[in-house]
Design goal:
five-stranded mixed β-sheet; eight-stranded mixed β-sheet; 841 residues; 30 strands; single chain; globular
């Protein structure tokens, strides 16, 4: 029988009926040492406001026995156990076994290929706790949890509350953890295995780091940075929310085969892919910082105050995403965090918000299956940008006062959007109802341009705009190379000149046309930059008369944010068919080579290479790729950018001289050597023996994935078949590496080899949801073919996704829309770019 998804109506009824007093959960992990089973006994103590009523408890594991107030119960087979004739006070006891710990939801058993050691992690968002033990798996039924865990004697066990009492048994250890504070079921966790552990005291907190033993040297390498960021983040959030993190222990556990990171209260679980096997690049280091701060912000947004239902998911995710950038810039060394947000996630959000899966940030959610489909670019980067605009709109100090009141009022309970709006309205003195409707209940992206009539400048919205505050910057030439000393001459676009800002004017938008006053007059202005400082979420367009000059001037703007705003405009014009790949590629490559912020070098390099590979017509692909390779060679002259530049060269090198130089520069750098082998394999080189030798040298436990990536790139039918089997059928590749292997598999100029796998992908769509939300998103998105297809295939993929799980359907729709735009840019006839917007042919 199919496992049912909890509906909002069911959750509201159950939430009104019950008050959960506590969970006592006994977990036996001893069967995982050499087998698949987790055994649990969940005892739930709860009261019922209507004695005699009935409800159900969630349990999608195999139920071995269940009793309510001593009376036996029978599971229904759909992931639920009916609870009839409730008393005023109730004790439910459910014994369950979960044996699907390889590909199932909620709990995962991973074997380290380096030494055969077993590691276990649990991750329950949005409703996957029910796959491990019985619970009322909805966010508003919060309660203390007391975990008792029996594990093999060599294992360390981590959970939310820390400080367990440990008992030695005959052939195991029992870990008894103190009660947690009231938590939603999805905020709880148990991780276990023979971890390497590092601890440090900081500002009254006991901080812990854990990783599998084979990665101990890398954890030791990164420990100082992780502890520093943790200390800085806890101090920042404790101050701005006027609520220090209330628990003494704060652990972070890095585990294999995990996707992303999860904000379990007091015990954050990470993919150990964040422990980079090569020395991290600046962008990788900043990403680590932002993810750490994002998950930490969830201690307040989500754990201490929890959304009542999943329509307020953005109260968790958008706020955590906003807060991590806010904290990074204010409290850490990553002071260009908002610039990298603009260069990465925000560009994805602009594309998504103008496509078929665009949705309001806050929308009705029918059931949890639908909720799993909105962990997306609208909820995360667009939501974060909208909150940045809200802080701009009400003022940062009043924003902080409102957030302080919100946490004080709702701590350890649940809240709704209206609760937040009320707190911020009271603090700011502004009526935010109109703002709320426009920004949170309405989908789509505003677009602005400027009209000039003599010295009069007017900001013009393409449609009725949302209420917002944005800035217009006026820039002119200073005639020299500028204080930052940039002298890039790649493509002849900057010529050593840097524009300087002559004025910055803030404008509050309330209507379609808004006068912009205070700008300097005169003919020496080269650029008027809309949304300077990137204060709002809106796309912009240059004046048609100055369009080409705008493209040339983007690299001459003086700051990472101003260049980023210009780059976002160029990118959006590419995705909507208003700029060619050649125009966008030249502009962004020029920005890349002129860039002064390390935070955005790598994102721009990826963007430029993607344009050459995925957006350019076949006849222009080689030239644009060579242009990016030339930019990489230029960047490699700077020792601080050598690593990033050589990674880019490994993706774009085509000429024998460039490949030879890459080999020479790589030296003993195992990471760069793997990248070089992938490129040479794609170009038809015989690299099998070198790959085998490098696999023997590489100490990384996942080095076999690098070797498989080399195989994936080969223009060889046997290699493609082998890789597809391991990647898509067996799912043998760790979820965090699926994108890496898939990118090497789907190569341009290999259409004849790839065509059969386009059908294999369509055939797989009904089954892509297995394993839970994260694998569903990863496999549905990363395996979607960008090559060897035509517009008819896009329609077939969308049709195949109609009956798929919502998370799969939305991922397929979003990815197919992006690929449709690529096909149009390549010159492949298409019916439309997005949604219902017709394209001119």
């Amino acid at each position: 029988m199919e496992i049912r998804s909890l509906t909002r109506t069911e959750a509201e009824r159950r939430g009104a009926l019950l008050k959960v007093e506590r969970y006592d959960v006994d977990v036996d992990l001893t069967g995982l040492a050499d087998g698949p089973e987790v055994r649990c006994v969940s005892t739930v103590t709860f009261s019922c406001r209507e004695p005699g009523a009935e409800t159900f408890v969630d349990c999608a594991a195999e139920v071995r026995s269940a009793t309510l107030n001593g009376e036996s119960l029978t599971p229904t087979g759909d992931g639920r156990v009916a609870l009839p004739a409730l008393a005023g006070h109730n004790v439910l006891r459910v014994e369950s076994v979960q044996a699907d710990t390889t590909t199932g939801e909620g709990v995962h058993r991973a074997v380290d290929p380096a030494d055969g050691e077993v590691y276990v992690w649990m991750s329950f968002e949005p409703d996957e706790a029910r796959f491990v033990w019985a619970c009322f798996d909805q966010p508003d039924l919060k309660a203390p949890h007391a975990f008792t865990v029996t594990a093999p004697p060599a294992w360390t066990v981590t959970s939310n509350s820390g400080d367990p009492r440990i008992e030695e048994l005959e052939s195991a250890r029992r870990w008894t953890f103190p009660d947690t504070p009231p938590l939603s079921t999805y905020n709880t966790v148990i991780n276990a295995g023979p971890f390497h552990q590092i601890r440090r005291e900081a500002d009254g907190h006991d901080l812990g780091l854990f990783a599998r033993r084979s990665l101990a040297p890398i954890l030791e390498r990164d420990a100082d940075e992780l502890f520093t960021l943790t200390r800085q983040g806890l101090a920042f959030f404790g101050e701005v929310f006027a609520m220090p993190f209330p628990q003494h222990k704060y652990d972070q556990v890095f585990v294999p085969d995990f996707g992303g990171a999860m904000e379990n209260y007091g015990c954050v679980t990470w993919s150990d892919a964040f422990l980079r096997r090569a020395e991290p690049t600046p962008a990788e280091s900043e990403l680590l910082a932002k993810v750490l701060l994002h998950e930490m912000a969830h201690m307040w947004f989500g754990n201490i105050v929890t959304m009542r239902w999943w329509d307020d998911l953005w109260l968790n995710e958008a706020f955590a995403e906003f807060a991590c950038h806010w904290a990074a810039e204010r409290a850490t060394r990553y002071t260009d965090a908002w610039a990298s947000h603009l260069a990465g996630g925000k560009l994805r959000a602009y594309l998504s918000d103008q496509g078929p899966v665009s949705h309001p940030i806050h929308q009705p959610i029918h059931d949890v299956a639908q909720a799993a489909s909105i962990f997306d670019s609208i909820t995360y980067p667009k939501g974060a940008s909208v909150l940045q605009q809200l802080m701009t709109y009400v003022g940062e100090e009043r924003f902080r006062v409102g957030m302080t009141a919100y946490f004080a009022r709702h701590a350890w309970g649940s809240a709704t959007l209206q609760d937040l709006i009320d707190a911020l309205s009271e603090a700011s003195g502004r009526d935010l109802d109109t703002w709320r409707t426009a920004w949170l209940a309405t989908a789509g992206t505003d677009r602005f341009s400027l009209e000039r009539d003599g010295d009069t400048v007017t900001l013009v919205a393409a449609d009725t705009p949302r209420p917002q505050v944005l800035a217009v910057g006026a820039y002119g030439r200073n005639g020299g190379s500028g204080s930052n000393g940039r002298n890039s001459d790649t493509n002849g676009d900057t010529n050593g000149e840097v524009l300087e800002r002559r004025a910055l004017v803030r404008v509050e938008v309330t209507q379609t046309r808004t006068p912009v006053t205070g700008l300097p007059t005169g003919a020496d202005l080269d650029v008027l930059l809309i949304n300077d400082e990137d204060l709002t979420f809106a796309t912009t367009r240059p004046d048609p008369a100055t369009r080409d000059a705008f493209f040339r001037a983007a690299a001459q703007l003086p700051t990472a944010i101003s260049r980023g705003v210009a780059t976002a405009t160029v990118w959006d014009m590419l995705t909507t068919g208003e700029a060619t790949a050649a125009e966008a590629g030249r502009c962004i490559t020029a920005v890349l080579t002129a860039e002064t912020s390390d935070a955005v070098i790598e994102p721009y390099l990826t963007l430029a290479a993607n344009i050459a590979e995925l957006w350019a017509p076949e006849g222009e692909r080689a030239g644009l790729t060579a242009m990016v390779a030339e930019a990489c060679l230029h960047l490699a002259l700077d020792p601080g950018r050598r690593q990033v530049a050589l990674r880019g060269l490994a993706r774009t090198a085509t000429k024998p001289d460039d490949l030879a130089r890459l080999r020479e520069q790589a030296g003993d750098d195992v990471d760069l050597l793997w990248r070089a082998l992938v490129r040479e394999a794609e170009l038809g080189g015989d690299v099998s023996s070198e790959s085998a030798l490098l696999l023997e040298r590489d100490p990384d436990p996942e080095a076999w994935v690098r070797a498989l990536t080399v195989r994936a790139a080969l223009p060889d039918p046997a290699a493609k078949a082998e890789v597809w089997q391991k990647l898509a059928v067996d799912r043998a590749v760790p979820v965090n590496a699926v994108g890496q292997v898939a990118a090497a598999f789907w190569r341009p100029d290999q259409d004849a080899l790839l065509t059969p796998y386009t059908q294999h992908y369509l055939d797989s769509i009904p089954h892509l949801h297995r394993g839970g939300m994260i694998p569903a998103m990863v496999f549905a998105g990363q395996l979607f073919p960008p090559h060897a297809i035509d517009p008819t295939y896009i329609e077939e993929a969308q049709k195949a996704s109609r009956d798929a799980a919502p998370v799969v359907r939305n991922t397929v729709l979003e990815r197919s829309d992006a690929v449709r735009r690529m096909l149009h840019s390549r010159g492949t006839p298409t019916h439309r770019v997005s949604g219902s917007a017709e394209l001119e042919q």
